[in-house]
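Dear colleague,

Following up on yesterday's call, I've attached the two folding results inline so they're easy to grep. Please treat them as preliminary; we haven't cross-checked anything against experimental data yet. The first protein's sequence and C-alpha cells come first.
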Amino acid sequence: MTVTAAPTVKDGCLTVRRKTVLSHVPGNVVVSPVGTESAFLGSTLTVSSSRHVFDLGILQGYKLLSLFRVKIWWMIPRLGRSASDVPMETQLLLLLADEESALEDEISSDCEEPATGNNCYILFLPVLDGQFRATLQGTQSNQLQFCIESGSQSPGATGNLRDIAMDSLEKYGVGIIDPENLYDFYNDYHSYLVSCGVDGVKVDVQNLIETLGSGYGGRVSLTKRYQEALEESFKEERSSKSI
C-alpha cells in the first residue's frame, strides 16, 4: 500500500502521512495539494479587511519549534507541545510527529484515523499572498491561528516585546521617500557614493518599511517597490556591491 504525504482535511481533521495534526478544523479551511508531500492551507473569508485572524484547528501533543519575531527586527526560537506555546508573529512552525504522540489518546475519538506511523517532521510556513503577509499564532485553548494582513502598525509589531525604538517611531514618526521617486533617489545616492570611491553598501533595517505602508498599498506592496528600486540601482552602478 502506498501512503501519500499530501495533507488532507476530512471529518474536521487535518492529516499528514496518516497522522492527525489538527482537530476541530473549521469548515472554511481549505487545502490545495501541491505534489504528493505538501499543500497550501488557507481559508475563505466573506469580509474585506486589511487584517484577518482565522482558526485552523486544535494543535496539541506534538513537540514543536516556532521561530517568531520577538521584536520587529529580531527572531528567536521557542519550544513547546501545543498551540498555546506558539507566540504571535510566528514565521516558521516545525512539528515532530512520533509514535508516542499524545494525539493518539487525546483526539482519536474525533477522527477516523489515529496518529500512527513512522516519525516525521511537519512544517507550517506562512507565505505572502498578493498584498498580504501571513503569520501563525496560538491561543490558550490550543487553537492554531493564521493572521494575514497588509496594513502597517499592526499588533504584531509590538505584540511580543516593546522596544524604545518602536515607541519613538509611534510618537515622532519617520520620513518616507515618495514611492514614485524611489529609483531616482537610490540612483542619485549610489552614484554619489561611487563617485566618492565607495564600492559597497550594507542595507539594514529594511523591516521598518512595513510600518509605513498605510496609504501606499500596504506593507507588502511598499516593501516590494523599495526593494525593486534598490536592486535596480545596484544593477545600474555595476562597480558597487550590496549586502
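Below is the second protein, in the same order (sequence, then structure):
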Amino acid sequence: MVPHVISGNTISAFVGGDLKTIDSSHPNFDTIKRRLREGGDVGDDLFDLGAALRKHLLYEDDLIRVGYDGLTYNDEPLHNYLTLKIIDLLGRGQPATPWINFLKRLQLNPDVGIKNDLFEWLEKGEMPITPDGYFLAYKKVGEDYLSFHDHKTLNHVGSTIFLPRDQCDPDRFRTCSAGLHFCSWSYLPFYTGRSGHVLVLKINPADVVAFPPDHEAKGRACRYTIIDEVPEDEAKHAFPEPVYSTYYDEDDDQQPFFDGYNKSEPHVGVFSRLKAWTKRLLN
C-alpha cells in the first residue's frame, strides 16, 4: 500500500521514494484518489503532469502545453483566470492564439501579482488584446501632446515611450505615482477633465508595472507605443471585441480577425478601422 494523505482537494503520497503532492487541478487527480483508496498501485507516470497533459492535449508548443484540465508553461503548471480562459477556448474548439501569445509575454513580467491578475483586470476594464499578445489602452495628454504627469514627455502617434522599470513605482496601492500611465475608456473622464488629446496605446504585458487591486481601470507601465489618436466622445465604442489587429502588430501566419483588415492598404489610422468594425459589428 502506498503511504498517502488525502485532504480535501490535495493528495500527498510517497511514490518511488519521493513525496508527490497534487491538487484537484491535476488531470489524474480522481484516478489517483480512487486507486489510493482502493489500495491499488500508483506510479510516477500518474503524477507526472506533463505526461498527463500529453494524453489529453489540446495545444502544445516549445513553451506551453494545454490539456482539458491544466496548462503548463516551461513545464511549470499555471492556474489563473487567463489559463482557464485558454483551456475553455481550446476545449470548445475555438482559436486561442492571441491569448496564448499574451500569456507568453505576460510570463516575462517579473511581478508575480501582475502575472496572475493582469488579464482579468484588463477584461473588466474592456481593454482588448492583439493577435501578437499585446493589449490596447488609452492615455490622455495635454493640448501640446506632453504628458500630464511630468509635462515633459512628448507623445506622438508612432512613437514608443520608455522609462526604466526601476524608475517606475510598483506599489499597486499608489494609483498616481512614477511610471507611464494608461487607462480604460471608463477612466478618461477623470483624466484632467475634457482637455487634451486621447491616444490609443499598444502595451506589452511584460512591461506593466502596477495597477490598482480594486479594479480602478488605470495602470502604469515602463513602455508603450502610441498607435492612434481618438475623439474622447467616441472612445467608449472603440473596442467592442476582445481582440483587434493593428498596423503595429508583428507579422505572423494567422488570418486577420476581421475580413476588412489588409496590411497592404494605405495607413488610414487604427481608429478609422475600429470605427468601421464597430459599425459593422453593431449593425
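For the second protein, one point worth flagging: The chain has two domains: 4-106, 128-248.

Best wishes,
A.L.
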